């Protein structure tokens, strides 16, 4: 298999995984962007900002702002000034939002754990190591291009 075929196979994986997450999120009344915003707020509990969400998920500021405004209107999140930088707001769950996010994220993790349990520990380890290696190689390739 030539490199171009392997790149196509990689895109098939990437687009396929994206579609699966989008469909799963949709079946729970969300977009995948909103799902991953919930995940990020949970993952960065107590220190999550709009900037972290934008950087982590590679979302435009406007998209992130719209998602956060909707979650706030639903009573799921609150924004409070950061003690370190008053211009920055810490995004956190309200009690209602914490319960909502925990429920959604538990279901997400069960779905992902079920998928991963179909692989051996070695296959999972190899997959993650190779994905990390590929990301590093992508980064190296971009840096080489920028230097020229």
Give an overview in words.
The chain has helices spanning 3-27, 32-43, 50-57, 61-73, 95-116, 121-147; strands spanning 77-81, 89-93. It has 148 residues and is mainly alpha-helical. The chain has one domain: Arc Repressor Mutant, subunit A (Orthogonal Bundle), CATH 1.10.10. It has a two-stranded antiparallel sheet with strand order 1-2. Helix 1 (3-27) crosses helix 2, helix 2 (32-43) packs across helix 5 (95-116) and helix 3 (50-57) packs across helix 4 (61-73). It is globular and about 50 Å long.
By DSSP (H or I, 4+ residues per run), the number of helices equals 6
Read across the widest sheet, the strand sequence of neighbours is 1-2
Average per-residue pLDDT, rounded, comes to 94
Uncertain segments of ≥5 residues (pLDDT<50)?
A: none
Tell me the strand percentage band. 5-15%
The CATH architecture classification is Orthogonal Bundle
The level 1 CATH classification is Mainly Alpha
Helix-and-strand structural type? mainly alpha
The domain tally reads 1
- Tell the overall outline: globular
Termini gap: 30 Å
The description of the largest β-sheet is: 2 strands, antiparallel
Protein name: MarR family winged helix-turn-helix transcriptional regulator
Pfam families: MarR_2
InterPro entries: HTH_MarR-typ (IPR000835), MarR/SlyA-like (IPR039422), WH-like_DNA-bd_sf (IPR036388), WH_DNA-bd_sf (IPR036390)
Organism: Anaerovorax odorimutans
